[in-house]
Automatic annotation (TrEMBL):
SUPFAM superfamilies: ClpP/crotonase (SSF52096)
Keyword Lyase in annotation: yes
Organism annotation: Kocuria aegyptia
UniProt key word Lyase: yes
Entries under NCBIfam families matching the protein: PRK05862.1
InterPro entries: ClpP/crotonase-like_dom_sf, Enoyl-CoA_hyd/isom_CS, Enoyl-CoA_hydra/iso, Enoyl-CoA_hydra_C
Catalytic activity field: a 4-saturated-(3S)-3-hydroxyacyl-CoA = a (3E)-enoyl-CoA + H2O; a (3S)-3-hydroxyacyl-CoA = a (2E)-enoyl-CoA + H2O
Protein name according to UniProt: Enoyl-CoA hydratase
Keyword vocabulary terms for this entry: Lyase
Pfam families: ECH_1 (PF00378)
Recorded family membership: Belongs to the enoyl-CoA hydratase/isomerase family.
Length: 261
Protein backbone atom coordinates (compact mmCIF):
# COMPACT_ATOMS: atom_id res chain seq x y z
CA UNK A 1 0.00 0.00 0.00
CA UNK A 2 2.95 2.29 -0.55
CA UNK A 3 3.92 3.22 3.00
CA UNK A 4 6.92 0.90 3.30
CA UNK A 5 9.22 3.39 1.58
CA UNK A 6 12.94 3.34 1.97
CA UNK A 7 13.60 5.63 4.90
CA UNK A 8 16.97 5.72 6.61
CA UNK A 9 16.07 6.44 10.23
CA UNK A 10 12.59 4.95 10.58
CA UNK A 11 10.73 1.80 9.60
CA UNK A 12 7.16 2.06 8.36
CA UNK A 13 4.66 -0.77 8.05
CA UNK A 14 0.91 -1.22 8.10
CA UNK A 15 -1.17 -3.91 9.76
CA UNK A 16 -4.75 -3.75 8.53
CA UNK A 17 -5.94 -0.23 9.43
CA UNK A 18 -2.99 0.62 11.71
CA UNK A 19 0.21 2.33 10.54
CA UNK A 20 3.38 1.68 12.54
CA UNK A 21 6.34 4.06 12.56
CA UNK A 22 9.43 2.75 14.36
CA UNK A 23 12.30 5.12 15.12
CA UNK A 24 15.37 3.21 14.00
CA UNK A 25 18.65 5.03 14.58
CA UNK A 26 20.18 2.63 17.10
CA UNK A 27 23.72 4.05 17.02
CA UNK A 28 22.39 7.31 18.51
CA UNK A 29 19.61 5.86 20.70
CA UNK A 30 17.10 7.26 18.19
CA UNK A 31 18.28 10.85 18.74
CA UNK A 32 16.04 13.06 16.60
CA UNK A 33 18.15 14.80 13.97
CA UNK A 34 16.80 16.87 11.08
CA UNK A 35 16.67 13.85 8.75
CA UNK A 36 14.64 11.85 11.27
CA UNK A 37 12.26 14.78 11.72
CA UNK A 38 11.71 14.93 7.95
CA UNK A 39 11.07 11.19 7.77
CA UNK A 40 8.64 11.06 10.71
CA UNK A 41 6.71 14.02 9.30
CA UNK A 42 6.67 12.51 5.81
CA UNK A 43 5.55 9.05 6.98
CA UNK A 44 2.92 10.30 9.43
CA UNK A 45 1.51 12.79 6.91
CA UNK A 46 1.23 10.04 4.27
CA UNK A 47 -0.49 7.68 6.72
CA UNK A 48 -2.81 10.52 7.77
CA UNK A 49 -3.83 11.09 4.14
CA UNK A 50 -4.65 7.38 3.63
CA UNK A 51 -8.36 6.72 4.33
CA UNK A 52 -7.44 3.06 4.88
CA UNK A 53 -5.52 4.02 8.04
CA UNK A 54 -7.48 4.68 11.24
CA UNK A 55 -4.69 4.95 13.81
CA UNK A 56 -0.90 5.23 13.97
CA UNK A 57 1.56 3.71 16.45
CA UNK A 58 4.87 5.51 17.00
CA UNK A 59 7.53 3.51 18.79
CA UNK A 60 11.29 3.15 19.23
CA UNK A 61 13.56 0.37 20.41
CA UNK A 62 13.59 -1.57 23.65
CA UNK A 63 16.43 0.62 24.99
CA UNK A 64 15.20 3.99 23.76
CA UNK A 65 12.05 5.54 22.39
CA UNK A 66 14.35 8.51 21.68
CA UNK A 67 17.22 9.90 23.81
CA UNK A 68 16.48 13.45 22.71
CA UNK A 69 17.09 15.87 19.93
CA UNK A 70 20.46 15.21 18.31
CA UNK A 71 22.90 17.09 20.54
CA UNK A 72 25.86 16.59 18.19
CA UNK A 73 23.95 18.16 15.31
CA UNK A 74 23.11 21.27 17.37
CA UNK A 75 26.16 21.74 19.59
CA UNK A 76 28.15 24.12 17.37
CA UNK A 77 25.33 26.26 16.06
CA UNK A 78 24.89 29.97 16.71
CA UNK A 79 21.72 31.70 17.85
CA UNK A 80 21.14 33.31 14.44
CA UNK A 81 21.54 29.90 12.77
CA UNK A 82 19.01 28.31 15.15
CA UNK A 83 16.60 31.22 14.69
CA UNK A 84 16.88 31.45 10.90
CA UNK A 85 16.43 27.68 10.53
CA UNK A 86 13.58 27.92 13.08
CA UNK A 87 15.07 24.76 14.58
CA UNK A 88 12.39 22.20 15.64
CA UNK A 89 9.52 24.13 13.98
CA UNK A 90 9.21 21.23 11.53
CA UNK A 91 7.64 19.14 14.31
CA UNK A 92 4.53 21.33 14.18
CA UNK A 93 3.52 19.37 11.06
CA UNK A 94 3.49 16.18 13.14
CA UNK A 95 1.06 17.76 15.61
CA UNK A 96 -1.30 18.59 12.72
CA UNK A 97 -1.81 14.88 11.91
CA UNK A 98 -5.54 14.26 12.46
CA UNK A 99 -5.35 10.47 12.77
CA UNK A 100 -4.84 9.42 16.41
CA UNK A 101 -1.21 8.57 17.22
CA UNK A 102 -0.39 6.14 20.01
CA UNK A 103 3.14 6.46 21.43
CA UNK A 104 4.56 3.14 22.64
CA UNK A 105 7.50 4.06 24.88
CA UNK A 106 10.16 1.64 26.06
CA UNK A 107 13.44 2.77 27.65
CA UNK A 108 14.62 6.37 27.38
CA UNK A 109 12.22 9.14 26.37
CA UNK A 110 14.41 12.12 27.19
CA UNK A 111 14.40 15.72 26.00
CA UNK A 112 13.03 15.77 22.46
CA UNK A 113 12.09 12.10 22.91
CA UNK A 114 9.79 12.94 25.81
CA UNK A 115 8.50 15.93 23.85
CA UNK A 116 7.76 13.81 20.76
CA UNK A 117 5.90 11.27 22.93
CA UNK A 118 3.84 14.14 24.38
CA UNK A 119 2.91 15.32 20.86
CA UNK A 120 1.13 11.96 20.45
CA UNK A 121 -2.48 11.52 21.56
CA UNK A 122 -2.07 8.63 23.92
CA UNK A 123 1.04 7.32 25.67
CA UNK A 124 1.55 3.70 26.61
CA UNK A 125 4.71 2.95 28.57
CA UNK A 126 6.70 -0.22 29.13
CA UNK A 127 7.70 -0.72 32.77
CA UNK A 128 11.26 0.10 31.59
CA UNK A 129 10.32 3.60 30.35
CA UNK A 130 12.13 6.66 31.71
CA UNK A 131 10.90 10.16 30.97
CA UNK A 132 12.87 13.34 31.49
CA UNK A 133 13.65 16.85 30.27
CA UNK A 134 17.44 16.97 30.90
CA UNK A 135 18.11 20.02 28.71
CA UNK A 136 18.96 22.06 31.83
CA UNK A 137 22.11 19.91 32.10
CA UNK A 138 23.13 21.12 28.62
CA UNK A 139 22.72 24.79 29.41
CA UNK A 140 19.43 25.10 27.52
CA UNK A 141 15.72 24.37 28.03
CA UNK A 142 13.20 22.14 26.23
CA UNK A 143 12.71 23.33 22.63
CA UNK A 144 10.08 20.98 21.17
CA UNK A 145 7.18 22.02 23.41
CA UNK A 146 8.25 20.22 26.59
CA UNK A 147 7.75 23.10 29.00
CA UNK A 148 4.21 23.59 27.69
CA UNK A 149 2.99 20.03 27.11
CA UNK A 150 4.57 18.67 30.32
CA UNK A 151 2.97 21.44 32.38
CA UNK A 152 -0.41 20.65 30.83
CA UNK A 153 0.05 16.89 31.25
CA UNK A 154 1.38 16.67 34.81
CA UNK A 155 0.77 20.12 36.32
CA UNK A 156 3.15 22.82 37.44
CA UNK A 157 4.76 21.11 40.44
CA UNK A 158 6.09 18.03 38.67
CA UNK A 159 6.83 19.91 35.43
CA UNK A 160 9.00 22.40 37.33
CA UNK A 161 10.68 19.56 39.21
CA UNK A 162 11.58 17.79 35.95
CA UNK A 163 12.48 20.83 33.84
CA UNK A 164 14.57 22.58 36.54
CA UNK A 165 16.45 19.55 37.90
CA UNK A 166 16.57 17.31 34.79
CA UNK A 167 15.41 14.40 36.96
CA UNK A 168 14.11 11.32 35.12
CA UNK A 169 10.86 9.70 36.23
CA UNK A 170 10.05 6.01 35.79
CA UNK A 171 6.91 4.51 34.26
CA UNK A 172 5.11 4.18 37.60
CA UNK A 173 5.66 7.83 38.48
CA UNK A 174 4.71 8.83 34.91
CA UNK A 175 1.39 6.99 35.17
CA UNK A 176 0.68 8.41 38.64
CA UNK A 177 1.36 11.91 37.29
CA UNK A 178 -0.97 11.45 34.32
CA UNK A 179 1.74 11.54 31.65
CA UNK A 180 0.94 8.02 30.38
CA UNK A 181 -2.37 6.21 30.24
CA UNK A 182 -1.15 2.64 30.76
CA UNK A 183 1.99 0.80 31.90
CA UNK A 184 2.60 -2.74 30.65
CA UNK A 185 5.47 -5.25 30.83
CA UNK A 186 8.09 -4.39 28.18
CA UNK A 187 7.47 -7.64 26.31
CA UNK A 188 3.78 -6.72 25.83
CA UNK A 189 4.30 -3.08 24.80
CA UNK A 190 3.91 -3.28 21.02
CA UNK A 191 0.97 -5.68 21.20
CA UNK A 192 -0.81 -3.46 23.72
CA UNK A 193 -0.24 -0.39 21.52
CA UNK A 194 -1.45 -2.29 18.43
CA UNK A 195 -4.56 -3.43 20.33
CA UNK A 196 -5.35 0.14 21.36
CA UNK A 197 -4.71 1.44 17.84
CA UNK A 198 -6.78 -1.39 16.35
CA UNK A 199 -9.66 -0.59 18.69
CA UNK A 200 -9.59 3.07 17.63
CA UNK A 201 -9.22 2.16 13.93
CA UNK A 202 -12.38 0.01 14.09
CA UNK A 203 -14.57 3.00 15.04
CA UNK A 204 -16.22 5.39 12.61
CA UNK A 205 -13.42 7.65 11.34
CA UNK A 206 -15.40 10.94 11.37
CA UNK A 207 -16.26 10.43 15.04
CA UNK A 208 -12.65 9.53 15.86
CA UNK A 209 -11.30 12.66 14.16
CA UNK A 210 -13.95 14.81 15.83
CA UNK A 211 -13.18 13.27 19.23
CA UNK A 212 -9.45 14.02 18.87
CA UNK A 213 -10.18 17.56 17.70
CA UNK A 214 -12.53 18.15 20.62
CA UNK A 215 -10.11 16.91 23.29
CA UNK A 216 -7.20 18.84 21.73
CA UNK A 217 -9.32 22.00 21.82
CA UNK A 218 -9.53 21.66 25.62
CA UNK A 219 -5.86 22.69 25.71
CA UNK A 220 -6.22 25.61 23.34
CA UNK A 221 -9.29 27.56 24.45
CA UNK A 222 -11.72 28.58 27.21
CA UNK A 223 -14.19 26.10 28.71
CA UNK A 224 -17.18 27.84 27.14
CA UNK A 225 -15.62 27.87 23.66
CA UNK A 226 -14.51 24.27 24.01
CA UNK A 227 -17.96 23.10 25.10
CA UNK A 228 -19.46 25.06 22.20
CA UNK A 229 -17.14 23.42 19.66
CA UNK A 230 -17.88 19.99 21.14
CA UNK A 231 -21.63 20.52 20.79
CA UNK A 232 -21.32 21.65 17.16
CA UNK A 233 -19.13 18.64 16.27
CA UNK A 234 -21.65 16.40 18.06
CA UNK A 235 -24.49 17.87 15.99
CA UNK A 236 -22.51 17.50 12.74
CA UNK A 237 -21.93 13.78 13.33
CA UNK A 238 -25.71 13.27 12.97
CA UNK A 239 -25.08 13.83 9.24
CA UNK A 240 -23.12 10.56 9.05
CA UNK A 241 -24.53 7.15 8.15
CA UNK A 242 -22.42 5.80 10.97
CA UNK A 243 -24.44 7.72 13.59
CA UNK A 244 -27.62 6.12 12.20
CA UNK A 245 -25.96 2.70 12.10
CA UNK A 246 -24.35 3.02 15.56
CA UNK A 247 -27.57 4.02 17.27
CA UNK A 248 -29.66 1.46 15.31
CA UNK A 249 -27.20 -1.28 16.28
CA UNK A 250 -27.55 -0.29 19.93
CA UNK A 251 -31.34 -0.49 19.90
CA UNK A 252 -31.21 -3.80 17.97
CA UNK A 253 -28.65 -5.19 20.46
CA UNK A 254 -26.02 -5.99 17.78
CA UNK A 255 -22.52 -4.79 16.81
CA UNK A 256 -22.43 -1.71 14.53
CA UNK A 257 -21.13 -2.06 10.96
CA UNK A 258 -19.53 1.31 10.28
CA UNK A 259 -19.15 2.53 6.69
CA UNK A 260 -16.57 5.25 7.26
CA UNK A 261 -13.61 3.25 8.44
N1 LIG B 1 22.02 13.28 20.71
C1 LIG B 1 23.05 12.73 20.00
N2 LIG B 1 23.57 11.53 20.31
C2 LIG B 1 23.08 10.86 21.38
C3 LIG B 1 22.02 11.38 22.15
C4 LIG B 1 21.48 12.65 21.77
N3 LIG B 1 20.45 13.20 22.43
N4 LIG B 1 21.75 10.49 23.12
C5 LIG B 1 22.59 9.47 22.97
N5 LIG B 1 23.40 9.68 21.91
C6 LIG B 1 24.47 8.81 21.40
C7 LIG B 1 25.67 8.83 22.30
O1 LIG B 1 26.45 9.98 22.05
C8 LIG B 1 26.35 7.55 21.93
O2 LIG B 1 27.04 7.73 20.72
P1 LIG B 1 28.62 7.26 20.61
O3 LIG B 1 28.56 5.75 20.77
O4 LIG B 1 29.00 7.71 19.24
O5 LIG B 1 29.33 7.92 21.72
C9 LIG B 1 25.17 6.62 21.65
O6 LIG B 1 24.05 7.46 21.41
C10 LIG B 1 24.85 5.72 22.82
O7 LIG B 1 24.64 6.55 23.98
P2 LIG B 1 25.41 6.31 25.37
O8 LIG B 1 26.72 5.64 25.12
O9 LIG B 1 25.42 7.60 26.10
O10 LIG B 1 24.42 5.26 26.05
P3 LIG B 1 24.21 5.05 27.63
O11 LIG B 1 23.35 3.83 27.75
O12 LIG B 1 25.52 5.10 28.33
O13 LIG B 1 23.37 6.34 28.13
C11 LIG B 1 21.61 8.03 28.01
C12 LIG B 1 22.05 6.58 27.68
C13 LIG B 1 21.50 8.19 29.53
C14 LIG B 1 20.25 8.24 27.36
C15 LIG B 1 22.65 9.02 27.45
O14 LIG B 1 22.89 8.70 26.11
C16 LIG B 1 22.20 10.48 27.51
O15 LIG B 1 22.22 11.09 28.56
N6 LIG B 1 21.80 11.05 26.34
C17 LIG B 1 21.41 12.43 26.21
C18 LIG B 1 20.09 12.69 26.86
C19 LIG B 1 19.74 14.15 26.72
O16 LIG B 1 20.33 15.03 27.30
N7 LIG B 1 18.68 14.40 25.92
C20 LIG B 1 18.23 15.73 25.70
C21 LIG B 1 18.77 16.21 24.40
S1 LIG B 1 18.48 17.94 24.13
C22 LIG B 1 16.92 18.06 23.57
O17 LIG B 1 16.30 17.06 23.27
C23 LIG B 1 16.22 19.41 23.45
C24 LIG B 1 17.02 20.44 22.78
C25 LIG B 1 18.04 21.02 23.68
C26 LIG B 1 19.17 21.72 22.91
C27 LIG B 1 20.61 21.21 23.28
C28 LIG B 1 21.68 22.02 22.53
C29 LIG B 1 23.12 21.62 22.86
Amino acid sequence: NGHENAYENILVETRERVGIITLNRPRALNALDAATLREVVSASTALDADPGIGAIVLTGSEKAFAAGADIKEMAGRSAPEMYLADWFAGWDAFTRVRTPVVAAVSGYALGGGCELAMMCDLLIAADTARFGQPEINLGVIPGMGGSQRLARAVGKAKAMDMVLTGRHIDAVEAERAGLVSRVVPAADLLQEALDVAGTIAAKSLPSVLAAKEAVDTAFETTLAQGVHLERRLFHALFATEDQKEGMAAFTQKREPRFTHR
